[in-house]
Amino acid sequence: MTATAVPLHTQIAALLPRLRRFARTVAFNREDADDLVQIAVERALNRSEQWEAGTRLDSWIFRIIKNAWIDEVRSRMRRDALFAPEEAGEHVGDDFAEAHQQRIAIQKAISMLTDDHRIVIGLVLVDGLPYKEAVEVLEIPMGTLTSRLARAREVLQGLLSDQARNVS
Question: Which residues are in the RNA polymerase sigma-70 region domain (predicted)?
Answer without folding.
Answer: 13-78
